[in-house]
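agent: user wants the full assembly modeled, not chains individually. Plan: 1) parse entity lines 2) check alphabet per entity 3) run joint structure prediction 4) return tokens. Steps 1-2 passed, two entities, 447 residues total. Proceeding.
--- entities ---
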Amino acid sequence: MRVFTAALAIAAGIIVLLGYFYPDQLEAFRLLLVDWAIIIAGMAVLVGIFNLAAVQMEKFRARQKGGMYGILLVLSLLGTFAYGLFFGPEDRYLRLTVDAIIVPVEASLMAILAVTLIYASIRLLRRRVDVMSVLFLSVAVIFLIAIMPTPFGGITALQDFILEIAGMFSRGGARGLLIGIALGTLLTGLRVLFGVDRPYGGN
Amino acid sequence: MLALGLLILAAVLFLVFTFLRRKSPGSFRSIDAYERLNRSVGLAVEDGTRLHISLGRGNLFTARGGSALAGLAMLRRLAERTSVSDRPPVVTSGDASLAILSQDTLQSGYRAAGAEEQYRFSTGRLTGLTPFSYAAGAIPTIHDENVSTNIILGDLGAEAALLTEASDRENTKLIAASDNLSAQSIFYASAQEPLIGEELFAAGAYVGAGASHESSLHVQDILRWLVILAIILGAGLKILGVPI
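--- prediction returned ---
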């Protein structure tokens, strides 16, 4: 069975890959396989949500710290899921639930994130004092100053110049990093295609 | 055709190097973060603490899936190495398919180590489907589950700062790498030994995942040199006014 699943996964991967290079011959088959995969991924979301609820229930059963929050999460999940099934995702009260709970909570986390990032920057020099850390912080501060609005309105010529010069280096560095990541992704994909790495439980 | 040629070249080099590496294992430059990781795995098993492995929210249908697959390869090896521990590692992810694959990978790792009974489905968790809900769901794991080392490896965005902050508050070790540039800059500011760029994809080779992972690094090096040569050649031709 494991050999069969591996053969199936490798064959599907090769067909999808070749579909990009030979669209006339394989495009339809590639799209069919991708459609199937999207349907499976949709089911995976349901399985994942079941996993989320099961983990929270186990926390409550084992009387772990935060177990009550887990129960609250599961009840909210079941409530909104049932309501959504009956009245549809466009229902105004369901949309209100999203607008009044999820959006403010995520906005609050975003605000915490801003403070966290400033705090992390301050601690960087305490954690690691070297040339690269000083350079990292200096460039971050220069960028912040350069994009800051001025009392004269708009971005001045000096700010424009700073952004141009600093941006030239940072864009070059970012491209270098992205090329490295692309090569890493290519080799990771090849390992999966050759069946050496089998994240689907085949080995 | 150039892309297909590059792909075939990479595949051939990968197969050749894997064959050669099986005969004679290679040696690599020292990366502090991975040395720390290897030490932490041993210490976690000895002192009965947990590893928390965060695989990010890399969707397998996008190019971001590469980092998720690299994280899974490392997870597989870590599951084998920690199979004797009383406290199995906890894996959190922000993508449903990735969460299922993490469960499967954990189970495969335990099976390979002859300890399949150690596997619990609740150790591979989906903690949220949006960036912030994923981070908010993973933070309690860092705080409440006797975690000694947090390994964050995958596709994350700015929300990674919330995870690194939680790790810092608990005074746990942090090993972090991402394919996302925002997350990399956050890790640079937050981690003791940051992993930059493609070092993320070296995780498997440094935790002893096998010859194929070692050969991947060699092929990446060769391809990187080819890219550098192509850039220099292209720039030179452009300076000379040759149309390319």
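agent: reporting back. Residues 129-203 of chain A form one domain. The CA atoms of residues 74 and 173 of chain A lie 45 Å apart.
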